[in-house]
Amino acid sequence: MSRIAIIGAGAWGTALSIALGRGGVHRIQLWAHEKEVQSCISSRRVNAFYLPDQLVPESVSVTNEFEEALKGAEIVVSVMPSQHCRRLFGEMQCHLKPEMLLVSATKGLEEGVLLRMTELIDSVITSEAGWHPRVGALSGPSFAKEVARGDPTAITIASGDVELAETVQRQFSDPRFRVYTNDDVVGVELGGALKNIIAIAAGICNGIGLGHNSVAALITRGLAEITRLVVACGGRQETMAGLAGLGDLVLTCTGGLSRNRSVGVELGRGRKLPEIIADMHGMVAEGVFTTHAALDLARAHKIEMPITEQMDAILHKDKSPRDAIDELMTRSSKSETGLYQAIQA
Fold first, then answer.
1. Is 195 a catalytic residue?
2. Strands 60-63, 27-31: parallel, antiparallel or unpaired by DSSP?
3. Could you say which architecture CATH assigns to the domain 186-344?
4. Are 100 and 74 within 8 A, CB to CB?
């Protein structure tokens, strides 16, 4: 029986604890930042704040203390908002051990420094604990509610550490939760982070009242610009045709459970971002934080990302969504195949 620590008891962290705790095969230690979340799960076996109506198995214990959550853990899964990742790993690094397998399930980029989450984790632990962690990234099309209720789901664990990837695949997989391995950490992490930006844009299309043509074009062109940046950063084009690329992009752009898409819907209806975020009651739409970082990363690599650029203007410069769409549609004409030839070059 494996001991798995899950750091973060939001919707996704809770859903993973439910999926991994099914059947009592593993002992799950779930760390919750909010004491009221800890109390609710402990007393009622439900996370009423972030994932109501989904029972948390008895094999899952919940705590507010890092030492208790990490004690004896063989696998540590990080499921925290990207903007808190550096601080929280700094706080818990003294409880981590070199033999632990670390898995990042956060889809985002660190603003300013522009690190992917596995890079950030490695940086913090190396500088503060003095050793390099064994780390991988978990990503793919996976709404928390559907994973928790047992809908068949397929995701990817990416790592250059083959043993880590195979161990996570073996330990996490069951008939309702299929895990594939991938060694393209750059592609898997960037695909998971950047698709949230396109999902906000897809929501805007819905909020404005545009139809399926617009969303299909957005998804396709969004995938093209994500792929350009992934390849420029050292990832592989074919990863973007997989679960962490196209799979996650389609889900997040079209699914009603997507928080990023929901933010876009409200923006398209004319609401302001601060008001929308206030109504989310602590839940996080990572695309809001990722957009500016992604644009900075694209500029650093001299990569054109027109959709991301317009989304940054809408989110952070109060640009009208309709003006952004008009600007995208009136750009100079391009060759679609020429863009992919440039990627391959």
1. yes
2. parallel
3. Orthogonal Bundle (1.10)
4. yes
The reply to whether CATH 1.10.600.10 applies to domain 3-183 is no
Angle of helix 212-232 relative to helix 306-317, nearest 10 degrees, comes to 100
Are 54 and 149 a contacting pair, CB within 8 Å?
A: yes
Q: What is the mean pLDDT of residues 221-227?
A: 98
Which residue intervals of the chain bear CATH 3.40.50.720?
3-183
Torsion, Cα of 197, 202, 203, 207 (10° steps): 140
Which listed residue (97, 107, 145, 195) is catalytic?
A: 195
- Average model confidence (pLDDT) for the chain? 95
> Of all residues in the chain, what percent are helix, strand and coil, respectively (each to 5)?
55, 15, 30
Mode of pairing for the β-strands spanning 134-139 and 153-158: antiparallel
pTM beyond cutoff 0.90: yes
Q: Is the pLDDT of residue 240 over 50?
A: yes
Q: At 67, which helix (H) or strand (E)? A: helix 66-70
